[in-house]
Amino acid sequence: MYVCVCNAVTERDIGSAVAEGCCSLRELREQLGVGACCGRCTKCARDVLHESLHACTPHRPTAARLQLAA
């Protein structure tokens, strides 16, 4: 889905940017131009950014899981 129509940025583009190390809306704006024109996409871009960051973050095992594995 297109997130920023002004700069033709998709959810996939944001996900790729996050995979390459982008971790803030400011960095997305600098790298992809998201929110740099009319700004209407900013909220959606932030939501997609957070979803992508969450998906890329490795899940750490909890203490209970570590005890079960031992």
Short description:
With 70 residues, the chain is mainly α.
Under CATH, the topology can be stated as Arc Repressor Mutant, subunit A
Look at the structure and give the CATH class.
Mainly Alpha
Average pLDDT for all residues: 87
Number of distinct helices: 4
Describe the global form. globular
In the CATH classification, which architecture applies? Orthogonal Bundle
Alpha-carbon distance between the two ends? 44 Å
Count of β-strands = 2
- Taken in chain order, the helices and strands follow as EEHHHH
Largest sheet: 2 strands, antiparallel
CATH superfamily: BFD-like [2Fe-2S]-binding domain
In words, what does this structure look like?
- The protein has about 70 residues and is mainly alpha-helical.
- It has helices at about 10-20, 25-30, 40-55, 65-70, and strands at about 1-5, 10.
- It has one domain (about 1-70): Arc Repressor Mutant, subunit A, CATH 1.10.10.
- The protein is built from four helices and two strands; from the N terminus they run ββαααα.
- Strand 1 and strand 2 (about 10) form a beta hairpin.
- The chain is globular.
